[in-house]
Amino acid sequence: xxxxxxxxxxxxxxxxxxxxxxxxxxxxxxxxxxxxxxxxxxxxxxxxxxxxxxxxxxxxxxxxxxxxxxxxxxxxxxxxxxxxxxxxxxxxxxxxxxxxxxxxxxxxxxxxxxxxxxxxxxxxxxxxxxxxxxxxxxxxxxxxxxxxxxxxxxxxxxxxxxxxxxxxxxxxxxxxxxxxxxxxxxxxxxxxxxxxxxxxxxxxxxxxxxxxxxxxxxxxxxxxxxxxxxxxxxxxxxxxxxxxxxxxxxxxxxxxxxxxxxxxxxxxxxxxxxxxxxxxxxxxxxxxxxxxxxxxxxxxxxxxxxxxxxxxxxxxxxxxxxxxxxxxxxxxxxxxxxxxxxxxxxxxxxxxxxxxxxxxxxxxxxxxxxxxxxxxxxxxxxxxxxxxxxxxxxxxxxxxxxxxxxxxxxxxxxxxxxxxxxxxxxxxxxxxxxxxxxxxxxxxxxxxxxxxxxxxxxxxxxxxxxxxxxxxxxxxxxxxxxxxxxxxxxxxxxxx
Length: 496
Prior knowledge:
By secondary structure, the protein is an alpha/beta fold. It has 20 helices and 14 strands. The strands form 3 sheets. It has a 6-stranded parallel sheet with strand order 3-2-4-5-6-7.
């Protein structure tokens, strides 16, 4: 990393996260998904989906693959749903949308750009420079309504629907529950919840883009990049659907079969991972990670100062089960880490071990649940570092000798800033072993303390001779220019 900021170019062959290391065979869920698509694309439930979305056969295969991968046990991020909601929800869906969505709208004039953001603070912090650099007419689509000053703003993306789609749903929805139930009995894969999700996503996005047409749509919401969302865009708009990476994207079923036109990733390895996950983008472009680069000007002096660390070991907060979006086994594996941190502090009382809280904002109940667990598991003196959402995590990472996390992207961000980090996976889920460099990964379903302690002691002694390759591959640049790069690529129509 240069003193004035520079690209962190990978100087070693790219490695895939977790079990998908270079040269390894594809994980089972992808092969199973391909067989599932081939065996079932002709079934009535999927022909109905093609009729409703207007997709072609290749796009239908992407839809089926996404629905399958979201429906299997290997999707450890699945959100459980009451069976009554799963099946009765299909009957209720068109009536619910007729009552709650705006379908009496008049289409607005087309804009060159539409940018989806969470709220005004998210916009000003992460995308304002990008947005204001774009050439042409533009507007914002917020996740939640709010005051965006003088900017042109649409209704949130889930507020609108097309009357024609709702009338089609009135015909289609009552016909689906029985065939989907029979399909689950025959195949052993209950796709009903995620089939309904695909209908929902297409309906609201087709409604939004029909009401607010644009040439290009840019979103931070790249978690699953659902093909149904892309189809809603493509039915109404002729330009590009653009996704900007927002967090770690691992070799996991949730991220398979994504569909966008242009994908801005923080580093080259993510394009490789996503391609192997059957995700499709016409263009992948490495630009750097927006969130660490937001704080470049504030962090650069701290990095250049090279002050001795204040902390020996800093753990990055990822919440607790059931509030961290993980299944119970993975979610509770963090509690094993907490107990090991406490034991490490007990055996090494002089070690400066701290816990970096995330910014919980308005999620007081989730923070309270976390603090309750920490009060139970931390019997030793392990300070909790507060977070107001103004870069405290990054500043404290710079002040630390070693950063620890389960699966946060901040581990690689710490390494990109020249700090050591270790990923700890006690979950038993191989997809959660994010770091392919064994120096910086603990992968032990047994949760053995001795191995944990040995790795921490080794890393505290380790002297880095530069930014590790795994960080360079995941961070194209740390120079504070990510937003400008994204805008320039779009303004100039750069393809690669």
